[in-house]
Amino acid sequence: MSRPRIVIVGAGFAGYRTARTLSRLTRHQADITLLNPTDYFLYLPLLPQVAAGILEPRRVSVSLSGTLPHVRLVLGEADGIDLDGRTVHYTGPEGEEGTLSYDRLVLAAGSVNKLLPIPGVAEHAHGFRGLPEALYLRDHVTRQVELAAAADDRAECAARCTFVVVGAGYTGTEVAAHGAMYTDAQVRKHPMRTGMRPRWMLLDVAPRVMPEMDERLSRTAERVLRQRGVDVRMGTSVKEATHDGVVLTDGTTVDTRTLVWCVGVRPDPLVESLGLPMERGRLLVDPHLQVPGRPELFACGDVAAVPDLNQPGQYTPMTAQHAWRHGKVCAHNVVASFGRGQRRAYRHRDMGFVVDLGGAKAAANPLGVPMSGPAAGAVTRGYHLAAMPGNRVRVAADWLLDAVLPRQAVQLGLVRSWSVPLESSSPEVARVPGRPEGAGMTTTPGTQRSDTGPGGAQAGGTANAGAAKNQSASDPARSRPDSDPARSRPASDPARSRPGGEPARNQPGGEPAKNQPGGEPAKNQPGGEGAERQPGGEPARNQPGGEPARNQPHGERAKKGPSGSPRASGKPRRAVEAAGPRPARGGSGRPGKAPRAAGEGSAGKRPTAPSGPSRSAGPPTDPGPEPPANQPPPGPDIAPGPVKRTDGRAAEGDS
Length: 655
What we know:
Radius of gyration: 31 Å
Number of helices: 11
């Protein structure tokens, strides 16, 4: 009998606990595969301390392969599930695709940032669900305080040192509390010229801070925040977000460069594609965490709507505490589905909550006993150490060092604004330039982001923005060997991407390039300001328009090289490149380097330009300006010598 195959999608609190428990229960008698975009389990409750510089990023990242030795780890993001074929399709971090077959499938994909239809939020706000977002916020806050300290203008200083946090739940409250301490420590070392101090704002439409907690704990948290100078505004939220600030629902305009979105979370969109019964975006399951009608399918964590047996008619909330317990029960029920043991129904007992407010301050109610002050701080950190599946000693060492040494307020600049868009199906993965579409981080289809957000750093567009990432529209794009627009075109197709006629395929011709944010033209694309080796605006090097381009058949007659052979023609013809080892299809393949004249180099393979229908049957209508005085006169219209190949590839034996 073959070994059962168990696939777990997601390594959050629910997925990690399921994998660890299954590894122990099956005793190596099953093939357990864990599919996750990263190779670590992220302990989310300590993420605000990473943003505040208390903990290093690796302290809250627990290695999956190191703590799950008998579980196969597959790096990738699930993008399709075939329930009838019992397969999971995924895309790897480098764009590779794969398929996993299963006998039992556990969906624990987690959650993503919750979005609201507020103008400008998707373009100018940043969430707080993953390690890249925490690292970006740490660098961004540090940079804004440093820029504010060097500014002479009071208005600019006030805008840069104002930080707005939307959402007064657990995450938003901790971010504001730790952030205020972090910026105050920076200002004490380097006071601002204008004498101003950092200002933190905490907004929420709820009537009080952390409404899901006991009212006494809520008052404790709000008192600590106000003592640290945090502007707490309940019953108020953001009406509109812009690059320079936000407009609140009460009509107030706040100038800021920082907008942190901690409103809440929503289930991962993966489960929506299954076509199964849902409950507010979550997959409906029975008390045994099994999908009705699908005995091989289980779901737990934030993607599962688990009935709350203690409160009939309700479902367990989307918290880390419930997800951690879901994983254990789910693992037992998966093993029971193979005939080993009995199924368990999920029942929970409220163990209380803890909120770390920084320093010795905290709010906690362990086992229903409300606590505050240093005692609550000790209980909170003790709970986190006990709940973490690894790195306990390192976390405790960082806490000790933070108590006796000042924090290092430096910005590394490793995570840019466009790397952590708010609309992302994978907030745990930062976007990387050149990553294929669908690999790792993806954004909502059809959504475009502005080039700059409140953080002041450049923001990117969608995940498939191509080479335009990391390039400002005000600077000319750097020419690259692969920037020739005529490449990747079939030989029988007209040269659509050549300038002077029909605009390039998939480009509107003068309008902003597709998949580029902010209405600005993409790098190496026509329209707007001209990029090197591309038409538009200022003539680009090695391209027609203005000064005649070399080796391009556009309007201007061919110019002879030192050997007398023509370089280009002004009438339709089959172009023949000079012999020598250089790239075909026009140009030398190196930016700014003119093609070699005919007769240079040794005989051998001769690359030829792709043939195809010409654009015009007559003489050019716009020959352009006169050629420079130091250039030879135009040559004949027809290139000398026979044409051996017409398909754009080098021919063997041509001379």
